[in-house]
Amino acid sequence: MAVNIYECLFLIEPNKASSDWDNSMATANGMIERHGGEILFSRHWGEPKLAYPIKKFRKGGYLLTYFRSDSQGIPKMEADFRLAVDLILRHMVVKLHPSIADRILAQLHGTHSEEEGSGEEGAAEAAGEEGAKEETKQEAAETAKA
Per the UniProt record, which residue ranges are transmembrane (predicted)? Predict the structure, then answer.
């Protein structure tokens, strides 16, 4: 059993997200833990307007979670995510490359220990910006080749 680090982005139903965020987060993270996952980092990532309606909702709450799990537990987790239709509108689980996972987690934990409270948000945004910069560089390279 290979133990990997995963990133999961949940789109939480907006009524649940706005009324009881802590319970929604605990429920989603509990699904991961039920199948042997270890939560490394989890945070609310905003409630933007969606590009198109999903199940007649125009807004949703994003929950960004990093967790460690063996690869055999992921299909079971995703089955649970799909069955939680009253809470989770969409989800996406991505296996992180070990070198990227180490950098992201070091940045999240390093910033958090220096600045209590606001460190989590800054580290997660920095991790997201780093990925966006890499994607932009790749897109520019592909455009230049074309």
Answer: none
